[in-house]
Amino acid sequence: MGSAIAGAAGGTPKYRRVIVKLSGELVGGPEGRGISPEAVRSLSEQAVEVSRLGVQLALVIGGGNIVRGNQAAAHGVHRATADYMGMLGTIINALAIQDCIESLGVETRVMSAIKAEEVCEPYIRRRALRHLEQNRIVILAGGTGNPYFTTDTTAALRGMEVKAEVLLKATKVDGVYSTDPAADPNARKFDRLTYMEVLKRHLNVMDATAISLCMDNSLPIIVFSLKTPGNILRAIRGEAIGTFIGGEDYAP
Which of 70, 83, 156, 191 could crosslink 213 through cysteines, CB 3.0-4.6 Å? Predict the structure, then answer.
């Protein structure tokens, strides 16, 4: 594995069961399109590093590198159809990640909310918990199985179902900003936010349904960049990276 990942190894994990939300664009590499073998390899190495520390790891993958439901809908495709297309894209991404992780020697299971039994298991909560207890990396595809819901909401929902201790939102940006840092040089990065601050400020973190689910069930969120190898491990070890989102009295 790369030296940056190896250098982050060691220490006691702060969290023992974690759900990680990955956008499809991260699988697509710098262009955010298609599937980049290099991007999949980097992501897989980080997942393997965490798993080998004994952390129970579930990944929720998006499909935006293949098709985004809202964009397809904007071009005339019925929104429900467009969202199902996006869900199928997540299965393609999940299979790519599964193949790479297993080539590194760690067992995985792909579980989908929409049936594709020839290539993956249907999502069943109790079965997912069993896989996690057996230290298999669980890759969750197919969104919630319903149109009009994002994979952000999927991550929040599945995080509650499997009793994850934290939701890690891996992005291309190193945290949450007051405005788009790519467009506004004066954008301010937040180290910590409450759920209500995210909702009231309309910050572009996760959709409101996902934030509300996390708030109602006290599931903390850490938003950080996946561009730096080893950041998933750093977040799980409790290092101060990215932006922490929690309740008023929650100590990160």
Answer: 156
- What amino acid occupies position 224? F
Average pLDDT over residues 149-162: 97
pLDDT in tens, 80-111: 999 999 999 999 999 999 999 999 999 999 99
What are the sequence ranges of the domains in the chain?
Answer: 1-135+161-169+197-202+211-233
6: pLDDT confidence band, cut at 50, 70 and 90? Answer: very low
The beta strands (E) that lie in the chain are given as: 17-22, 56-61, 108-112, 121-122, 137-141, 166-171, 176-177, 189-190, 192-194, 221-225, 243-246
Q: What CATH number labels 1-135+161-169+197-202+211-233?
A: 3.40.1160.10
| Residue 11: other Cβ atoms inside 10 A | 13
pTM over 0.85: yes
Q: Are strands 56-61 and 192-194 parallel, antiparallel or unpaired?
A: unpaired
Amino acid identity, position 223: V
pLDDT at 183: 87
SS3 assignment, position 246: strand
